[in-house]
Amino acid sequence: MTDTKRHVTIIGAGIVGVSCAAFLQREGFDVTVVDKLEPGQGTSFGNAGSVSPSAILPVAMPGIMKKIPRWLLDPLGPLTVRWSYLPYVAPWLLQFIRHANRDEAVRVATAMRNLMGTVFDDYRTLLPAQDFAHLFRRNGCLYIYENQEELRAAKWSLDLRRDLGAEMVEVGGDEIRQFEPALNKRFDLGIYAPENGSTIDPYRLVNSIADVVKRNGGKFVTAEVRDVTLGDDGPVSLETSVGTLPVDKLVLAAGAWSSPLARKLGAKVPLETQRGYHVTFSNPRIEVHRTVMWNTRSVFVNPMEVGLRIAGTVELAGLKAAPNFARADKLADIARDMFPDLDTAEQSQWMGHRPCLPDSLPVVDRSPRYANTVFAFGHQHVGICSGGPTGKHVAALMADKIPEIDLAPFSANRF
Q: Is the pTM of this model over 0.90?
């Protein structure tokens, strides 16, 4: 008979949820994962694919206040707010702006470096060797700049990452063309981050981990979680679209949809969705060898098994508004600018919901109210980069072990 005290229910089947499930199994727990979508079909599906231990900077960087007015006037710019949503998101934006200073950037970057530094080792732990070798590349990330002014503007943030142990190597035009011959020749300045890498398919990554969970006896339930029934000591069941599911221990990893359940489970968190778009060119007819980020445009380009993907920018419009695929069209224009010979004839577009807190740190913490519940959400733009490590620390919390890193910066009570 299964010991129900060793059973954990995970809400969310994205990269964070399946990583939690797999690490919990390694701690001896039985697991059930519940999501309204199949594994990997939500936000994780459209991830840019970068796996970068140095992607540690907050979204609210020093100096962002000077840029926001210009961005907000451009509906296709790096950051935009739909005017109909502004009254709802204004309090969150004010908190976001308060974090846009150097002290906060150092605090956040330090915490994220601690969280993401083991990302490749953690996925290697979870996956069969052949799956890991197929799904991951570790051939660096190239950040590109058009002129010295752009590079000088990035100096403080680059030095911060270097101070925290990231290798960031300045490269010139000749080296850039050796790295990526298809890039527009006007990009004569760059930073190469050799420790970084990428996945060839975020969706396959999630499903590969989910397959490990299934082989080890884990269950997946496709259902919408509508409510949590609480007992004296915490949640005892989930009310779902397929009926009531009993709960002994619970992990909340529902991404941008976590806030209402978190509130009922003991924490009021200012969670917002920073909607992101991607375009994938299935037959690009050029070779791109690694992740390339155009810093000024806030976009990533990554070669994947399904084609060449460009992703990025931020739209604040909530969970219910229809996509504005003009933003994806703008990404396609940027991709053509970066790679003049890119064939854009065969392409697909996508929009998803990144779960973001104002300080750009996720919540990885036990519920302040219920000992049988752990939170794991809010991983903003770096879900793939931090999903594996988060799963490891969640499993440690659930097993009453001391996590490998200090989780205080990721507290549910920090707001």
A: yes
Instruction: Look at the block and give the residue holding tokens 């790096």.
Output: 78
| Structure tokens, 264 | 């009922």
Of 398, 405, 382, 359, whose CA–CA distance to 20 is shortest?
398
Residues 201-260 have pLDDT tens digits of 999 999 999 999 999 999 999 999 999 999 999 999 999 999 999 999 999 999 999 999
